Fold these 3 entries.
Entry 1:
Amino acid sequence: MLLPNPKGNYSFLKGIAPYSAGAVAEKGYEIVHARFVQPVPLAKGFERVKAHLQAVRRPAQALCGMELRSPRPFTFPGFTEFNTGYVEVLKSWNVFLDDLNPVARTNIAPEIGAPSVPSLYGFTYTAPSVRKEKTFIVAGAGELPEGSLNPDDVIRKGETSNEALREKTRFVMGLMAGRLQGLGVDWAQVTTTEVYTIHSICSFLASEIVRPLGKAGIHGVTWHYSRPPIVTIEYEMDLRGCYREIFL
């Protein structure tokens, strides 16, 4: 379900309480992707986001995506507890829209060099633009059906064989395709494809990821040697179609 967020100048796909499933900028605006050189502890990261938005004369409601890095994967109950504090900050910014969170999110745990505390790696926001192309972000998703945080719903739960990983990947690619369709865009408009797993995907990288990307495959795939945010989930992806990428 694509819902308008006029204060933020974008529309978003309804997700679950902690995050939306994606966002697409409205006409006259584009989504800008900002990334820190190194992750910033989350509390400080929120301050940095607010300061940046003020510096570029954008309201807090322009925030449409957050990219988090965690010390290690959460348990399912731990993930719920973490989300409570995270959501409270966004509510205090008056970002929520009719009790819905419009801000998409990816949250992963680097296997090597992880931060000691939950941290902010990057974020996206809308800004005025004369660009005609649609810009968008698709939130991170692992091998769980849309809307579920039930560990029993994990596809091929507890399995990491090559065939199980192939099935997980195929399932997540299906989620990505569905979210692209919901945003009114397609694979050809994707500029960045990111994969998060510590397991080898080499044997099916071409058949299950690069070929289905179609024209977006020319941009390659960024593989982060990281775990998804919750234990028992082994593979995650996110996407974006952005033309302005900045480092802070």
Entry 2:
Amino acid sequence: MRMRKMKNLDSRMEATSAYRIGNPAEYKGAWRSLKKDCTALWVEVGCGKGKFTAETAEANPDVLLIAVERCQEAMVVAMEKAQSMGLKNVFFIDMDVAGIEDIFAFGEMDRLFINFPDPWPRKKNAKRRLTFRTFLDKYCRTVKEGGEIHFKTDNAPLFEFSLEEFAFCGLQVNNLTRNLHENGIVGIMTGYEEKFHAMGTPINRCEVVCKPFDLPKEEKVCTTQEAQM
């Protein structure tokens, strides 16, 4: 997410510091200690300004929700939203999702949300798409077997590309739709989603069932640098 630099970013981050996890690697394998009575651990990658994040946490008070966002200007707005709503079951991490295995243990998550990621439309940037096979490999190591990835995008080419990647990895896809809100609003919308739905843009969505899998040898190793090429 591209946002203008905030002159008062540091003070706003400090005011919402109770919601920010500054040392996420220390919680690897122990995230549920943040909410010992939680029934599930959900993670959202690329939470943006946090409309979906806050409303999802509010609607599921028994769930612990961890939101990942590498743009601090967006994340601080999301944290302020959570703070204003008095939420106790959501926390935020500012980092690149390429490092997700560094902070979540094998099979630790129950569900992962990927909402409206950057489509990286140029073919040479395919490895940067968050539904590329090397990212899926990371997700399926950190989401428990049988857990789900919930994916939404307004970008039809990205959706079709993603379906091909899911198939390549042998992942089961459920509840696939290419026009989620055709007959009325379904589920909690992101702020971005609201705008594009109002413009009449169809929203694509599906649920992917996670399982361990092995990529071909040449695809198996993907460094952070390679994922950003």
Entry 3:
Amino acid sequence: MKIAVAKTKNVLAAFDAYQHLHEASLNQTPCIGMFTGLAGLGKSTAGGYLFTQADGILVRCLKSDTLGTFLERLAQELGLEQRQRKADMLKFIVHELAYTGKPLFIDECDYIADNHDVLETIRDIYDMANLPIILIGYNQLPKKVKRLEQLYSRISQHIEFQPADMDDITTMANELVTDTKIATDLLAELLQESKGNFRRIHTGLNTIEAFARTNGLESINASQWGNQPFFPSVN
């Protein structure tokens, strides 16, 4: 399979949202975005794709994060090598982001959503650097961020990632599978088994392609696949 990001509905919606955020930043209007949804729906994948396309900065939150560790990793992403005081790191971060104009993508935001010090600092970074910031997390993130009205009021784009449908899985098969044509009936079975989870669909497509390659099949349908498992079994 290709190492690429398929242009599913979620990815296209995220790309469109980022375009709006970029234009908003140029017009001095609110330009914080939020990508939310259940696990496996492609939020981090879309964020990573946009981060690359926009030449942005990506920082992943950790469960153990404090304000200091969050700022330290973000400063390192921007090129600060030595550890400094929080105030100095914040000053460096704001200067570098404002100077480069690079958008900031913050993944796994659920880990810091209950830490008001971190959220307030993200708002400070936004206010002082004036650039798009995209917060990525699970379904509860909007509810938690809403408790900090000063940050929540600056969110102008919110994409709720949805499970895959037949259009999405067909797009993934067409754009990612290189050696095999997978019939619609087999894609429908995979969609049902995966419950629309993009991560599991990707695993299933890879499994199907490997099977077809091993058996010399240029195309494969549900009858040829039979009752084989799409995903590794867990004992």
